[in-house]
Amino acid sequence: MSDLNAAFAGGAPEEADFLSGAAAHATGRGKWVLLASMTTVFFVLLALYAAVLAVLLPNQIQAIDPANKASGLAVVFAVTSVFSTLTTPIAGALSDRTRTRWGRRTPWIVTGSLAGGACLALVPLMTSLWAITFFWVGAAIALNAMQAALTTVVADRFAPAERGVASGFVGAGMTSGLTVGTIVAGLMAGDIAQAYWLFAGAVVVACLAFVLINREPPVTAALPGPFRPAEFLKSFWVSPREHPDFAWAFAGRFTIYMGYQGVITYMLYILQDYIGLSLSDANKTIATLSTITFFALVFAAFTSGLLSDRIGRRKPLVFASSIIMGIALTVPLFVPTLQGMLIYAALIGIGYGAFMSVDMALMTQVLPKADGEATGKDLGILTTAVNIPQILSPVFAAWLLNLSGGDYTALFIAAIAFVYAGSFFVLPIRSVR
Q: How much is the pLDDT for 210?
């Protein structure tokens, strides 16, 4: 029986020799190497997501069916997000149970990146909506399985007092990745296949380098019991009554992403149909907006993470950052011009950069269990608060656009309402200041 199969079946006696060490928090030079390489992987991963979701898929779908581009994009995102939402908590829970000579998370990071990169490389070769959806779904499943394991490293390897800094670095990598990915994809929009292959290769190289540079320490926890599907599925229910902070954190993250995701998903079409740019100018403008957002994101992510650890507080910074995001979404509503979008880009960078960095630290501190044995599963559940909006927001946005006759004003109003509502859900959390 292989190491991985043994993990799911309850383990084998001979595994004890490499489970005797402690999965200690990283210290000294190793901590900074881990932090830098984690930031790099998240940078590449989010660059990939931004490139595909904001530029490559919209361009590819528009080339196939220009008249139904909005509904086609909504279908691809909705189908993909269903699988992504299911994958993240399940993969996180299975990584909690995994016992191999290479640790719990490493096998998921390696196999997820390889499978995800392979599927992504095939997407530009497809010429029908359903073929594109099939291979992008495969890539999303594999990459979300990898991400579930990778996200857990923050809780596994950093002490609670250092998670603000860790989240700040990772958040800066994620947010700058979103920006750079959009810029690169916008500049490469004329050669979509090359762009897909670039990002597919980058994520494989980054993940393999990560696991080679940062060897995962052995696990001291007892081997998991026999795998029972009914008990496994039951473990995904986290009672809001018993764990209200977990529920409030989930609700806040969910509503904020419902607002943010709805606008970002349709950015290419907003620039064309709301601002009035041509397709060529819209792709170039996405790169310009992303450049502005980049500097705001990096500055906000680093400073917010450091400030959060220094003052020992997460909630005020999460609340303030979401308010700034709401203000950013208000600007294009009243100033539907290129200048308005430039202001939006700067403000959304500040708000979203601060939110991502501090929100990750907050999430690691509201987990129901503190022993680390369900960290992957619980963080996976909280990640669905990001994935579910990817299912609902494109469909909801398409419905709003259809109902309003293609008026993107309705989309901005709904996004503002979601973000402002989400900013208040963090306030009832008691276990985190």
A: 94
Average pLDDT over residues 275-302: 85
| pLDDT tens string 48-82 | 998 998 889 999 998 888 888 878 888 888 788 78
- Residue closest to 159 by CA, chosen among 311, 25, 8, 332: 25
Domains detected in the chain: 3-10+19-221+229-425 (1.20.1250.20)
Residues 6 or more apart whose Cβ sits within 8 Å of residue 91: 108, 112, 144, 145, 148, 149, 376, 380
Whole-structure pTM value: 0.68
Residue 155 has pLDDT above 80, yes or no: no
Would you state the torsion angle of the CA atoms of residues 315, 416, 180, 281, taken in this order, to the nearest 10 degrees?
A: -170
Compute the distance between CA of residue 268 and CA of residue 278 in angstroms, rounded to an integer. Answer: 10
Which stretches does DSSP call E strand in 51-115?
Answer: none
Q: How far is CA 43 from CA 79, 189, 194, 203, 334, in A?
A: 25, 20, 19, 9, 33
Burial of 212 (0-12, 13-18, 19+ CB in 10 A): exposed
Name the residue with tokens 């890539």.
139
Q: Please, are residues 36 and 153 in contact by the beta-carbon 8 Å criterion?
A: no
Q: For residues 267 and 275, what is the distance between their CA atoms, to the nearest angstrom?
A: 10
- The most distant pair of C-alpha atoms in the chain lies apart, rounded to whole Å, by 66
What local confidence, expressed as pLDDT, does residue 99 receive?
A: 79
Residue 89: closest CA among 155, 149, 167: 149
Cα–chain center distance at 133 = 19
Band (pLDDT 50/70/90 cuts) for residue 319 is confident
H-helix or E-strand spanning residue 148: helix 129-157
What b/e string do you get for 240-278 counting C-beta neighbours within 10 Å, with b at 16 or more? eeebebbbbbbbbbbbbbbbbbbbbbbbbbbbbbbbebe
CA-CA distance, 144 to 41, in Å (whole number)?
Answer: 13
Question: In terms of residues, how long is the chain?
Answer: 433
b/e map 190-207, b = 16+ CB within 10 Å: eebeebbbbbbebbbebb
pLDDT at 142 over 70: yes
The CA distance from 207 to 241, in Å, is 38
Q: Note the pLDDT of residue 193.
A: 93
User: What pLDDT score does 372 carry?
Assistant: 53
**Which residue matches tokens 């999965």?**
23
Contacts of 369 (CB under 8 A, 6+ apart): 375, 378
